[in-house]
Amino acid sequence: MSTDTATPRTATPEDDGVTDATHAPGGSPATGGFDPAAMTRLLDGRYAEVRALVRSNLAEYASVLEDAETMSRADYRERVKDIVLEMAATGQTGMGFPEEYGGGGDIGASVAAFETLALGDLSVLVKTGVQFGLFGGAIQQLGTKRHHDAYLRPLITGELLGCFAMSETGHGSNVQALDTTATYDADTEEFVLHTPTEQGGKDYIGNAAQHGEVAVVFAQLHVGGEGHGVHAFVVPIRSGGEACAGVRIEDDGLKMGLNGVDNGRLWFDQVRVPRDALLDRFASVSADGAYSSPIENPNRRFFTMLGTLITGRVCVGGAGINAAKVALAVAVKYGLRRRQFEAASKDEEQLVLDYGMHQRRLFPRLARGYAMHFAQEALAAELHTVLTDQVEDDTRRRELETMAAGIKALGTWHATDTIQECREACGGAGYLAVNRFPALKADTDVFTTFEGDNHVLLQLVAKGLLTNYAEEFEDLDSLGMARFVAGMAVDTVVERTSVHKLLERLRGVLPGGDDEGVEGVRDTDYHLTMLRFREEHQVGGVARRLKRGIDAGGNPGVVFSEVQDHVIAAARSHVQRVVLEAFVDKVRGLPEGELRDALQLLCDLHALCTIEDDRAWFMEHGRLSAPRSKAVSREVNALCRRVRPLAEAYVDGFGVPPEMLRAPALVDAYANATRTAPGETH
Amino acid sequence: MSTDTATPRTATPEDDGVTDATHAPGGSPATGGFDPAAMTRLLDGRYAEVRALVRSNLAEYASVLEDAETMSRADYRERVKDIVLEMAATGQTGMGFPEEYGGGGDIGASVAAFETLALGDLSVLVKTGVQFGLFGGAIQQLGTKRHHDAYLRPLITGELLGCFAMSETGHGSNVQALDTTATYDADTEEFVLHTPTEQGGKDYIGNAAQHGEVAVVFAQLHVGGEGHGVHAFVVPIRSGGEACAGVRIEDDGLKMGLNGVDNGRLWFDQVRVPRDALLDRFASVSADGAYSSPIENPNRRFFTMLGTLITGRVCVGGAGINAAKVALAVAVKYGLRRRQFEAASKDEEQLVLDYGMHQRRLFPRLARGYAMHFAQEALAAELHTVLTDQVEDDTRRRELETMAAGIKALGTWHATDTIQECREACGGAGYLAVNRFPALKADTDVFTTFEGDNHVLLQLVAKGLLTNYAEEFEDLDSLGMARFVAGMAVDTVVERTSVHKLLERLRGVLPGGDDEGVEGVRDTDYHLTMLRFREEHQVGGVARRLKRGIDAGGNPGVVFSEVQDHVIAAARSHVQRVVLEAFVDKVRGLPEGELRDALQLLCDLHALCTIEDDRAWFMEHGRLSAPRSKAVSREVNALCRRVRPLAEAYVDGFGVPPEMLRAPALVDAYANATRTAPGETH
């Protein structure tokens, strides 16, 4: 085991250990350790300039945070639309589109811009996502040149607003089972779009209730009596503010949040569109009704189509991670201002951030916020490369899809959990709209459902792990997966993950188990090894359980249902391992110095919290002794105390524009410090 | 160990174990097992009639759920006020007041009424709580006959609306440190109320922004230059809709939820009130300025005053527990309607409630909902007895206060957690206002902060445990407690909880530890013993750590801060033990039959989930072997499968009026079944 990484790494002026006990925490906190502005530059990375543009746009339209509270829903929707169009004019929202249509030609930049926008009003964010990510992305990815020529330029400027009409009332996660149909009529060379059932109405569709003029509609294609699965069509839905003939539109009404976005429902009654309305990159229908596609297998075709829309998933995860930064910044700053109860001193009440429990509530989430940021950065970079270079390597594309699903799930849960804890940490003040949490909480809540329910996405992750991203990957629904795993691929997985093999590989690296000591508890290689062991063990276990159940003659679906919590756990372990590796890689790649020290401290805290959260599993599987498990918890507490004097610098490092923090009474005393950081990065 | 309780206990038609694997869960669920209406009668208990009245009032004013979404904030506030007054006219809100003033003279009934009201619009609930619980309760408990004569009758009818002005911007949980002053002027025989600082303004005060005419104001009493601590005064704040002279009022503005309640801020600028404005049950000031009190110790006096207001805490916990029932009912019913993905069958998509993971998400929370209900019932009964019989036993009163704090904390966290999980389990539909979750989530969010931040309340619980409810109990802030524990009482606690003693007492009852087997994993005595062991061990551990730290010369406040997570864990363990005991007592007291079987199943599930959640601790402390820990998790899954066919009956048993479920598209297909249950209980 490596020992050099176990030595103290940070520039914090406090020692950990017993001396802390004699250091009165009520005293003035040391804020040194590192330069927050330098941290912001590091976090901004390659796209510092893009992020600076978005921050400046956010500051310019900061009043929308108040408009969200004071305007009627109708006015707020208009206001949000206007802001989106004005931001579009700065180039901020078109960065992912080809330059020949007025875009920026840089997918990574478009993700960075979107993520950063999540520091502000989230209706503006989601309206942007609907127009440029979902609608624009579908035209760009599923369409061909004639669609690009017709739609890209006006949609990039916002002259043409559109919808992405995929989800139906009856079908969200299971897109392959949509009800809406598109039947080709060779006589007129038209497709007939139709909603056969009330539950088949498109639902929760952004831009549908008010502003959208066209929609990319996903429907079951039928040609000459034969079904070809789900395809996408450009369908006019509104003209001059009125629904087009045959289109019924309903407003989704008041939502928990995001009320600046006009979500609605769409039903089609035999609506006819010309033959070239089919977005035909992956399949086309000839004038006389011959269906053709370069991808023969219908399942594979469907998942290839969906795969091109992956950017949306990456963006939602990044948005959750960034929204959580706002909550962390407000709560940490409030904790450095709010005093309550005499504790360490009779003369003065204690800063709430000096309470051990308060640190426990906020700092592990702060550390996870950094971890998720770097994991998201790595994911976005891979997305950029794969899409920009049109990488054809199937395995690599599937790994990217898996990771996009995993980071989206963990990133959005991180947001829900962190925003809630930060609200509670601000007490009654956190309940007032002016202090940001109400909007943050209500608006981000649905992120766990956007782009697929998080549990369904984790199953997708598990699918990749269990099938080794096999060719058959894309054919497998839950049922198919259970059968598949029980059949061919399971032997490989079982072999790869046999406990014997795992232990063999890990010998000499992994302390714990028989080791009662606490040595090396902060060793990064130890953390990585623990998470790798857990992942392999769980994936192998799932495979074996599925195989055993099906070999015993069980219904594959029932077997799967009974193993489902294990499947989800394995997927989560995989994603957590990848997140930690991203954090470790980042830290190890930095030059020595105060930033590296500061990040190593958070990386240690994040790794140990991840292990601590699941220490029951590690004990159950002999990888953690009881004394060592307790040592992990003690170390988490000790690390929290070392984070404490740097806490404000860490949240300032996020570079949240001060206008986005709002919460004047909660963060005011610290506003100067905050204002420095982003200013210096512009 | 008792074995007879380990045999199957329920009338469910399914066996657990391997046979489940061959039973296709997509088939029509068995709904038998027990009669939901009988369950509702059982849950309603002694106050079935009161609860029926409230349910019928809720149904009559069901339109307020929609008004909350469609009305302006100003109109909604008026609407809520009107409903509260109309409900008052039915006697529903006055049940806790003496009959001679037009009240119902039954404290238990008033708690039952309030809890049940939480099934509906929560602004109506909180406005009711402000007027009758907080304002009315303060007049009743802190005042004497002249105050009762002057105020009780008009406040019970709602003719006089009032505020409970305790919290300040700068002080919430630490009430003893309030800034507002009340200085006695013997020359005019008046108290002068004054807010010396901006942060000393009363904040988050319900009824303050619009409707309140008087306020019970908590202020530091100064008489003849001497401070006597916090006392309460009746102060006119508004007349004819205008703020009284010297009173500055500000609206708290938009909140996350509860926007039908007019929360506001109050500042006093040398406001004079007559001498009899002091609520003088516990202290009085003579005309010439002599202060006297039957309770000599100022701290003790303060906590005795606060102690009389305990009903509010009991009510908030009960409200959280009941609000969570609404979320569980909607989510379970939706899970029985929503199908997604073919899993067990190629012909039909699977009901989402048949997925193992979905059961894992909802059923432990369903079981906890029942557990919390019975714990709350026991708490409310004890409250009723202690207050009605004016029990003088100090230890019993302190135990009641401790338990009120503990159930409030766990009950409101249960609400936050359950509502969130249920929302996510309903996907995008859960995000729409019409489907109830947005209001449930936003309105209940602040319950974790009401009546004291939950972490502060758990510290209060720990205080009781650590000091054995000693005489000094009430003198101890965090600082004092650390010193006290390190001093006198710790030896008792340490002695009582020495591991040796614990093991001695538990020998022969507690399997596990050395026992690798799974025998008796569903034995109720085993569950109870596990939770008792954990509590005693943790309480003893905290006491020893505090003593060690202070003996080593540490600053008591710092020592306390470092042990704080352990303190909170011990308190939580205590409350969880009490909750489980309440559930077990309830089940054991029932006659044999289908209701008892059904509740035993949930009780088992709740107990095992509680152990599973903290299985790391049990393993760390040698009370659970790794194989047995895994057996606990397997058993939880098996119990979830047995709960599945009864799930709808369990949520129907809650007796939520169908009008309160709303969510037409989510629960419609099951509305008939729902409508039966409450109807039969009226």
TrEMBL record, chains A, B:
Residues 307-466 form the Acyl-CoA oxidase C-alpha1 domain. Residues 49-159 form the Acyl-CoA dehydrogenase/oxidase N-terminal domain. The keyword RNA-binding does not apply. InterPro entries: ACOX_C_alpha1, Acyl-CoA_Oxase/DH_mid-dom, Acyl-CoA_oxidase, Acyl-CoA_oxidase_C, AcylCoA_DH/ox_N. One of its GO terms (molecular function) is oxidoreductase activity. Its cofactor is FAD. It is an enzyme of class 1 (oxidoreductase). Residues 528-664 form the Acyl-CoA oxidase C-terminal domain. Residues 163-271 form the Acyl-CoA oxidase/dehydrogenase middle domain. Residues 1-35 are annotated as: Disordered. It comes from the Bacteria. Residues 1-10 have a biased composition (Polar residues). Signal peptide: none annotated. The keyword Flavoprotein applies. Its EC number is 1.3.1.108. Keywords: FAD, Flavoprotein, Oxidoreductase. Pfam families: ACOX (PF01756), ACOX_C_alpha1 (PF22924), Acyl-CoA_dh_M (PF02770), Acyl-CoA_dh_N (PF02771). This is Caffeyl-CoA reductase-Etf complex subunit CarC. It comes from Nocardioides aquaticus. The lineage of its organism: Bacteria, Bacillati, Actinomycetota, Actinomycetes, Propionibacteriales. The gene is carC_1.
